[in-house]
Amino acid sequence: METQAPTQPDLVSRASGLIPILRKHALWHEEHRRLHDEVLEALTASGVLRMRIPHRYGGYQSDARTVLYVLRELSRGDGSTAWTASVWSISSWLACLFPDEVQDEVFSSPDTRVCGVLTPSAVAEPTSGGFTVNGQWRFVSGALHSQWQAIIALGPAPDGTQWPVLGLVPMSDLEIVDDWHTAGLRGTGSVTVVAQGVFVPQERIIPMPAVLTEQYASRTNAEHGLYRQPMMAIGCSSFTGSAIGLGKAALEGFLEQLPERKITYTSYDSQREAPLTHFQVAGASLKLEEAEFHARRLADLVDGKSVAGDSWTVHERALARVSLGRVFDLTKEAVGVLRTASGGSSIYSDVPIQRIDRDVQTLNMHALMHPNTNYELYGRVLCGLEPNTQYL
Fold first, then answer.
1. Is 191 within 8 Å of 178 (Cβ atoms)?
2. CA 66 vs CA 18, 23, 27, 177, 372: distances in Å
3. Which range of residues forms the domain containing residue 166?
4. pLDDT by residue (tens digit) across 120-169?
5. What is the pLDDT of residues 40-93, one digit of tens each?
6. Measuring CA to CA, which residue among 130, 209, 126, 125 is closest to residue 165?
7. CATH number of the domain that 26 lies in?
8. What is the C-alpha to C-alpha distance for residues 362 and 348, in angstroms, rounded to an integer?
9. Is 44 helix (H, G, I), strand (E, B) or coil?
10. Which of 41, 213, 322, 386 has the greatest count of CB atoms below 10 A from its CB?
């Protein structure tokens, strides 16, 4: 029987309530390349970091719509905060795929934060009772504030070749290299993490081919549809809100400043009166509405499958990937229009639009979000070809 669900708070409203404190510390995040302690405490107290943690550990097992809207609100406050929260969300979900006794260890506190990346840039050598892992992972968002990391390493396959394996490692077993000096998402603290001779018990390792075919190891979580979904579909739906919130923040900020802004070297005393501005605002707004349509459709697909228990077709799996890419592409376009319309004063570091633009550009460079990669994949499937990736 499924554990009785705890009382469900309105996590979206709580996330909205965090916007002032996130905006207050956004510039600090940029300068210090990590989240402020006050922001971390507020996130924890709000419960939004428990969205994907099972009921039996005090989590909320939130559906995809809730995750979308929570991350959208957080991103309206600060893109780095929202992105880090999204990584903690999907990484917590990954931890829920492991045997129940492993989850008991990881979620000994309901406020445990799990970070992770999916790049197999380490090697797992078999040893007595488990594996010894050596290697490093870049772009580990949230590593500075996490207790565990989901890692990917190359381990031995049954046929004697190598295949990627998913593991869980305490952050206390890993070393951090403070190398996060970037153009965007500076506050995420997405540092490099190193494993040197780290022992990982057998029960904390799952072959990635099993993960990619929904052969998960948890007995208890198998009773809940959320934890039977494809990893990539869950991941894609978990990230869209961070882009949409940035777009909304850009539009809100632009409209707020609009009445007082002139167009220099023209006769317009108010930018609001210029037909070009009307065209720009309309175009950006419609792009953001279309982006949110794709995000909602994907969230509803995930939630519908979770409830009905239906399997995913190849087309639906590719649709999840292309929906993510489309959300980020449209948001980038919308923010770009607003940035162009914001004038010379927008280059100052205390003006949010320039940070929002850099954050959106950086998100679009992520391998999973990259629009062109996802468009090509979806087009292949539509043309009747086999996907050129296992990550569906």
1. yes
2. 16, 22, 27, 34, 28
3. 114-206
4. 999 999 999 999 999 999 999 999 999 999 999 999 999 999 999 999 99
5. 999 999 999 999 999 999 999 999 999 999 999 999 999 999 999 999 999 999
6. 209
7. 1.10.540.10
8. 19
9. helix
10. 322
